[in-house]
Backbone:
């Protein structure tokens, strides 16, 4: 008998009617002869409500107590799903984080799973029970409640699947799978049947929020076969697998975008050793992540311009940090621009193919879209463009790489 | 340093503003030099919401999973109060039921506390921390979550006070204390400065819902000094203490009433041995509690009438059980009356005073209020009367026993 892990997100658990529907999907897998562990999120909106309480009680809430509060949402849904399964004739019981236990680091609010106790879990599965496990929560070595950070239930599911050596881990969400791009922008976007872990990671990091990044990293490390499906349809979804499982490699898996970028240009920085180091040192000290960096080459003057991006939410802080270091850096002025967006093409195929970047630059140039910065990784090319061109750029690139579905 | 336990009910914990107010009351006790453990209820309405989810998921919800769901409300408020205390500069941490542990029986939904582990709790108090403990919840010997039944947080507080050998247990609620009767009916009702455990028990059992009955029993057994106060005022409240602590004994402590009674009269039961046993045997088999019983004495016929009361919520079931046993009992017909109410006078003083009952019967007779049934205990006399006389009877008795406050 194969062991499978099924994970249901907040939209799938929002209300008893939907929980009953989840129970019927679980029942189907049980009737197909599988041993099933289910990992659940809190009802949609519940974690926000609980986080709101904590913030209202204190902007600097004790993180250990914050975890006590916010972990309760998953406790509720795991009990309710166990009840709904029982009512559907499927023997089931819940195992809370401290009961398994899901042992984590002590970094409250952003803990990492270190080990999962499987003794009681395996005994329950052996006894023909479905195990229902609240995602997102764990317990520290000190016996305190911990949580894994937003979206952490995906990681819980992958960790449970790894601990059980499960045949696969099915992530049920409110989308049909992973698409070549955002279908709201490109109606002819296609659902991918398969995608590699590496591609999924790059897509997650550039804003295609289907899976928590850490869950994909863990699945890749532990070789857990992930499937992303909709709990509201019968479509097969997308498999996230090893590169060698993908027989017919597409050049590009998808086009993603990220609106959470802001561009900073520092004008007339002295062109001497150490000036640039002072800029990025000040930002690093303030714990501000810098993403794309462009330094204009200074031909005939003693100054240069430095352009880079920071998360849009950090722009105010970044500006303050730099203005405070103005004398130390010695620049003339600082220009900030929030009206930018990062567009990326991702695909393992580009490892072995030249010319992928050229296709991108040419397609954008033909539409008069100016590229303000570029970064690349082994399987990703990202460009920074003016926000007003976002939809046009995504559509153009989707077509240029041959991703459009047949009309 | 004295150790005290403070317990706050759902109204006191309803929302962050109120939780912050609770934190300030706790802080005052800490600043007065006390070691403080706080027991909290869920936010008002939250337990009902969670119970509603369980019922909707299945009318026959697995009680162990029901407990997983409904215990979450107190988990949330204990974390939030610990956060609010920290924000108020008072070091605090929560201890959940499984963390202390609060070991209970395995009777899910209505578990009894068997033992409370105090090691970590005492260590926290010794270290100058306030311990915040969710009421209502515990853990079974199997390591499953359990709950104590509605109102169980009072019992949690008393059990923690007993385990710590606390100097007192202050129950903060939304009333000012225990009154001689319902102030909505008798505006001149007085708040009692002291009341005995026995009186409090009898008052609780006849519908004065200030404290859960079980918490009073436990306080009496463990000699925990209870105080009932309002979290919204500075008034001293009511002390619940041993009889010998009350120097000036009042004859009657209070007048209580209970609307949850229904009267059943079984007409023309054969006046032979076993007929009455068959009636109450059938009700006992159906787990229906019978309270007051009156059997008319048959002078010159072969039949008798039997009258008794059952909880109003059980009337439909009681009627069905008796109709099914009609042939076995051999009665003629059954008359049910829901328009009755039980009015009681309670006071340890009546142990040593004769004539207490006479005062009651005379006062009611003077107003033309017919008594349909009577029960007595060592410190309580209860009468069943027509519901329309409820307010009049309570006012008349309050005056007759000299309980009215000076005008």
Residues:
């Amino acid at each position: 008998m194969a062991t499978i892990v099924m994970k249901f997100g907040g939209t799938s658990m929002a209300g008893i009617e939907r929980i009953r529907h989840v129970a019927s999907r679980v029942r189907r897998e049980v009737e197909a002869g599988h041993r099933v562990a289910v990992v659940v999120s809190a009802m949609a909106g519940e974690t926000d409500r609980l986080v709101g309480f904590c913030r209202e009680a204190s902007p600097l809430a004790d993180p250990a107590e914050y975890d006590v509060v916010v972990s309760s949402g998953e406790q509720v849904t795991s009990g309710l799903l166990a009840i709904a399964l029982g009512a559907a004739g499927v023997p089931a019981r819940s195992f809370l984080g401290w009961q398994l236990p899901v042992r984590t680091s002590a970094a409250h609010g952003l803990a990492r799973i270190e080990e999962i106790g499987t003794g009681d879990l395996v005994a329950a599965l052996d006894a023909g029970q479905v195990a229902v496990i609240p995602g997102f929560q764990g317990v520290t070595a000190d016996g305190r409640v911990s949580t894994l950070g937003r979206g952490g239930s995906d990681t819980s599911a992958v960790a449970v699947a790894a601990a059980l050596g499960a045949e696969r881990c099915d992530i049920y969400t409110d989308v049909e799978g992973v698409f070549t791009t955002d279908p709201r922008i490109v109606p002819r976007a296609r659902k991918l049947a398969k995608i590699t872990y590496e591609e999924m990671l790059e897509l997650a990091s550039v804003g295609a929020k289907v899976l928590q990044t850490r869950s994909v990293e863990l699945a890749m490390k532990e070789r857990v076969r992930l499937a992303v499906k909709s709990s509201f349809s019968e479509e097969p979804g997308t498999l996230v697998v090893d590169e060698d499982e993908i027989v017919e490699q597409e050049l590009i898996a998808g086009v993603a975008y990220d609106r959470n970028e802001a561009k900073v240009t520092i004008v007339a920085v002295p062109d001497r050793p150490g000036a640039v180091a002072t800029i990025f040192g000040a930002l690093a000290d303030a714990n501000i992540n810098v993403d794309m960096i462009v330094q204009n080459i200074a031909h005939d003057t003693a100054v240069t311009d430095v352009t880079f991006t920071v998360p849009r939410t950090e722009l105010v802080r970044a500006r303050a940090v730099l203005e405070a270091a103005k004398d130390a850096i010695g620049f003339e002025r600082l220009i900030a621009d929030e009206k930018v967006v990062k567009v990326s093409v991702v695909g393992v195929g580009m490892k072995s193919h030249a010319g992928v970047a050229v296709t991108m630059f040419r397609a954008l140039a033909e539409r008069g879209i100016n590229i303000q910065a570029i970064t690349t990784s082994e399987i990703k090319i990202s460009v920074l463009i003016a926000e007003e061109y976002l939809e046009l750029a995504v559509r153009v690139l989707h077509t240029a790489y041959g991703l459009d579905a047949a009309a």
